[in-house]
Amino acid sequence: MRKGYNPYLLPPWLRKTRFYCKGIIIPIAIFQLIRLLIVPTTGDFLLLCALGGLAFLLYKDII
Prior knowledge:
By secondary structure, the chain is mainly α. Helices cover 71% and strands 0% of the residues. It has a domain at 18-59. It contains 2 helices and no strands.
């Protein structure tokens, strides 16, 4: 088992994808939160939870 996480071991295209996803995930989650506050539906809530989980995983360098 590896000790720690090294993002430089990933292929360049995957590093770029992670970089751009980190930059855009928070604005999308904020937009989804505003949409949830205006018209609350189950689908919006589940999407917001998924976006929050994805943002957490991206910023903690788990994925």
